[in-house]
Amino acid sequence: MSSLFVTLEAIRDAAQALRGSIRRTPLIDVQLTHGRPLLLKCENLQLGGAFKIRGALNLIGRLTAREARRGVITYSSGNHGLAVALAAQRAGAPAVVVMPATAPAFKMAAVRASGAEVIVEGTTSMERRSRAEAEAAARGVTMVPPFDHPAIIAGQGTIGLELVDERPDLAEVWVPIGGGGLISGIAAAVKRLSPSTRVVGVEPEGAAKMTASLEARRPVQLVRASSIADGLIPVRPGDLTFAHVCEFVDEIVTVTDDEIVRAVGRMFADARLVVEPSGAAAYAALTRAREAGTAQVTAAAIVSGGNIGAGAWARLVGQA
């Protein structure tokens, strides 16, 4: 297998490095149909309210003391920025987060409250990436990419280790896709440990950059991306994440914003979980497949995050 791919050893090393610093999040069974487990991996209950802390801590924890003193920078619509702020705080490193003008106020406030400097730039992932790269060069700080980095992918892959350890009978895992770091890590772990387990990626219909890239057989950039799931709207997958998806992922599907909104409501009804739209996408796709009779018997959906303001969440549940 190509050296391009994050190894199982790297993911296990990340799990060791993160031991005691993150939560092993619960895997709960909401079993919508008797005898057919429907599992939810609740990363909305992770430190920082999302899975992103795994990758951020894994990368920032590997910086030298000199690099940490200089500081770190990233670009994010919210969850990764918060994770970097928290990880930098633990490392004693100054942090800068470049966020879009459209970032939810709740997430922007959380990043600032965690000690990071916030720079507002544009509305797309490419705009904030360009600004972050310019700031990194000017300030001499370390970039912590949101998804396209081996240490980030390895950190997110620790979720895959936990899934297979707890449920070796897992037939399918459904994973939301933003830039692709989460599904790359999970798939790289799961496919090495349980090759028969299917890995299904889920994108918003209005931001299906991985779907478009697979059709083109290369990473492509969308002209525009729009979805209620703000964490899933990068306009381009990473080169590294695209390669991992090609190698390890069985299928990519899309969901509509209406399906995501209904899933936010259903997750509260089924499991009393508070979930942001990005975190509900995989559940939306899995329950749709269950209703159509196309999902495997034992399947899990990754609940990737729960960072949403109380008012916004209440409106979505009411709408659902």
Descriptive overview:
By secondary structure, the protein is α/β, with parallel strands linked by helices. The chain has 2 domains: 8-49 and 149-319, Rossmann fold; 53-143, 3-Layer(aba) Sandwich (Rossmann fold), CATH 3.40.50.1100. The chain is built from 13 helices and 10 strands. The strands form 2 sheets. A 6-stranded mixed sheet has the order 1-2-10-7-8-9, with helices on both faces. Strands 5-4-3-6 form a 4-stranded parallel sheet, sandwiched between helices. A hairpin with an 8-residue loop joins strand 1 (27-29) and strand 2 (38-42). Helix 1 packs across helix 7 (150-166), helix 7 packs across helix 8 and helix 11 crosses helix 12. The longest helix is centred in the middle third of the chain and has 17 residues, at 150-166. It is globular, with a radius of gyration of 18 Å.
Strand portion, in percent?
A: 5-15%
The helix tally amounts to 13
Total individual domains:
2
Could you give the count of β-strands? 10
CATH architecture of the largest domain: 3-Layer(aba) Sandwich
Oligomer: single chain
Order of helices and strands: HEEHHEHEHEHEHEHEHHEHHEH
Determine the fraction of residues in helical runs and give it as a percent range. Answer: 40-55%
Separation of the first and last Cα atoms: 45 Å
| Contiguous uncertain segments of 5+ residues | none
Q: Quick one: overall form?
A: globular
Sheet bearing the most strands, described? 6 strands, mixed
